[in-house]
Amino acid sequence: MKRVMVVDDAMFMRASLKMMLEKNGFEIAAEAENGAIAVQKYKEVKPDFVTMDITMPEMDGLQALKLIKQFDPDAKIVVVSAMGQEPVVKEAILSGAKSFIVKPFKEDFVLKTLNSL
């Protein structure tokens, strides 16, 4: 069973992702509402992969992505964000994101992406 950390500042989005992942056989290892907490929790629980929002308070998802990749170069992080503009997607991928899912997302696309990691 793959262990996932869900990172998003919107509680309803974390709940939606968690429910979708759990019903499809994933274990929720942790959740975080901003990038700073995500970095701290990643070090504690070392999940198999992370879903990471970009726009969050305290520390955004791109900063958190870079810090997690410094700590663990093999970290599997999938950005899930409404910020689907090309420069943002490019920066996320160049920073080490494995994939980019634009909100609103379709469940089958999220599952296909995560199962391919």
CATH superfamily: Response regulator
Average predicted confidence as pLDDT: 95
Strand content: 15-25%
Order of helices and strands: EHEHEHEHEH
CATH architecture name: 3-Layer(aba) Sandwich
Overall helicity: 40-55%
Class derived from helix and strand content: alpha/beta
Q: Largest sheet, described in full?
A: 5 strands, parallel
Rg, Cα atoms, Å: 12 Å
Question: CATH topology, anyone?
Answer: Rossmann fold
Which overall shape is indicated by the principal axes computed on the Cα atoms? globular
CATH class descriptor name: Alpha Beta
Helix segment tally: 5
Report the span from N to C terminus. 13 Å
* Domain count: 1
Total E-strand runs? 5
Strand-helix topology:
Layout: E1 3-7, H1 11-23, E2 27-32, H2 35-45, E3 49-52, H3 61-71, E4 77-81, H4 86-94, E5 99-102, H5 107-115
Parallel strand pairs: 1-2, 1-3, 3-4, 4-5
Helix pairs in contact: 2-3
Describe this structure in words.
The protein is of the alpha/beta class and 117 residues long. The chain has a single domain (3-115), classed as Response regulator (Rossmann fold). 45% of the residues lie in helices and 21% in strands. It contains five helices and five strands. The chain has a five-stranded parallel sheet with strand order 2-1-3-4-5, with helices on both faces. Strand 4, helix 4 (86-94) and strand 5 form a beta-alpha-beta unit. Helix 2 runs parallel beside helix 3 (61-71). The longest helix is centred in the N-terminal third of the chain and has 13 residues, at 11-23. The radius of gyration is 12 Å and the shape is globular. The mean pLDDT is 95.
